[in-house]
Amino acid sequence: MLLTPEQEKIGRENFSDAVGVTRRDFLKGAAAVGAGAGAMYFGYEKLKGKPVRTAFIGTGDEGNVLISEHPTDYMEIVAIADLRPANLKRTFTGSHPEARRGLNAVLGAAKASEIRTFASHRELLAKKDELGLEAVVIAVPLNQHAPIALECMEAGLHVLCEKLMAQNITDCKKMIRTADSKGLLLAVGHQRHYSVLYENAAHLTGMGLLGDIKFIRAQWHRNNSFPDSDAWRKWDYDGYAKPDHEHLLKLEKDGVLKDLGYESAKQLVDWRLYNSTGGGLMAELGSHQMDAASIFLGKVHPVAVQGFGGRNFYGIQGVGPKDKWTDDREIDDQIFVTFEFPGKHYSEDKNDLAIVTYSSMSTNSWEPYGEAVFGSRGTIVMKTEKEALLYKEPSKDSPGGFEQRIWVVNSQEGGSVLDSYETGAASGPGGGAGAEEKVSRGYREEMEHFCYCIRSGENKLRCPGKVAMADAIMALTANLAMKLKKRIVFKDEWFDPASDAAPETDEQVINS
User: Fold this and answer.
1) How many CB atoms lie within 10 A of CB 215?
2) Cβ distance 288 to 185 under 8 Å?
3) Which among 155, 165, 332, 469 has the fewest CB atoms less than 10 Å away?
């Protein structure tokens, strides 16, 4: 949704004012006790006791984002493990001035030098008692999420695992059952559950400010159509991967990689491109946004999904520059899916549906990634996890659209509604938008709350195994729908950790 700078400014101010009005008492109360943003919104406090002694397993791109954001008041990193020496090295030196600053910058070189390094998670687990280890953060390729998480929980460690939770739902259920049986915390890194921006947007949709939500459009479009521009093809183009080639090829030859779940060195480095190690665009990108859609609709499970996915660009001879290099990827490069979610009256009328569409392409980046929530009274646009824009629909008594500033009023029927006024008027109640303020994507908050729950003994995680499994079910069932070219109806038992039922083993799904 391409808007002018003026229209975006109006949308930001509308959102800020609506939040300021509807949450005024909440914000005043939180400010009075001096809580931080994460604690204020998500119900935890400053840690009582020592920071949780934690190891990071997997220090690639996502692992280093988390390490740069880790909350030192809550978490003490005592060790890191990775199969790739270059990953271990850049975890200390950093590889990006903001997103991946490195432990030397975050902690200081002296403190960082105390952190132990290991060449595999098994070497790390063998030293867990010596390290006084309490928890691990897992950020490895998708096919190893479940195996490593299960090994860590069997060793008595709490687990925060990156999303997608696992490569199939059977493994998700094993993870949940193991955590429950051992009394351990299992958190999964769908960080939108800890984003203040998304929490405020969900608050507005939950109170009915947008009216009846019938459509959510989500997208994550990128352009990787140039030979050296594909961020997921690291073996050939990533400067951090090339120094590891000789080392990883030796591990491949010696059978070490196969024992740890990888057929080859190249598969380990380019894991997102292969079905045996990754989950494609739906798992890596779309799962975030289906998670957000479910939150906006009241954390409901979908009714059905269908869609199209294909290799429409890579591997087709003579199109664009692809004929200049060999592309062996297995995942789709374009996907377009449609989910049917229950509307608020679905239990009485099965025709009451909210439709969520998701598209992800590799050949055009014209619009930014995000979600647009379309209600009968207003629209919220979530832009790149950094901004939220709010606009009002026209009504009998007041105009709407991109040019209208709005305020929140109480209706005669009860509840809150939007009203509008000309953009030249003074700002409505609730204060300015604070557009220049850095917006947290939720990484720090999810780690803070994880550690708080460990220390307090309160398992009140916002994205525990059962919630994360629902996100995995949405993403992986969408993959099945695209692969089998059919509409798949979701079943309640898939979402039940006590049941063995799963979409990948459901005869009605896999038997076309």
Assistant:
1) 14
2) no
3) 155
- Cβ contact 235:262 at 8 Å: no
* Total Cβ atoms within 10 A of residue 93: 14
Q: Where in the chain is the domain with CATH 3.40.50.720?
A: 35-194+443-463
**Quick count: other Cβ atoms within 10 Å of Cβ 347?**
9
Dihedrals φ, ψ of 419, to 5°?
-125, 165
pLDDT band at 512 (very low <50, low <70, confident <90, very high): low
Tokens describing residue 266 = 């190249």
Distances (CA, A) of 330 to 109, 132, 138, 229, 260: 41, 41, 25, 18, 21
Q: What is the mean pLDDT of residues 90-97?
A: 94
Domain 35-194+443-463 adopts which CATH fold? Rossmann fold (3.40.50)
Q: Are 189 and 446 spatial neighbours (Cβ–Cβ below 8 Å)?
A: yes
Q: How many residues does the chain have?
A: 512
Distance CA 375, CA 339 (A): 17
Cβ pair 98, 65 in contact under 8 A: no
**Strand 304-310 to strand 488-489: parallel, antiparallel, or no bridges (unpaired)?**
antiparallel
Q: Which residues contact 496 (CB under 8 A, 6 or more apart)?
A: none
Cβ partners under 8 Å of residue 309, min gap 6: 280, 281, 282, 332, 334, 335, 336, 337, 479, 482, 483
Q: Is 14 exposed, middle or buried (0-12, 13-18, 19+ CB in 10 A)?
A: buried
- 131, 55 Cβ separation under 8 angstroms: yes
**pLDDT score of 29 more than 80:** no
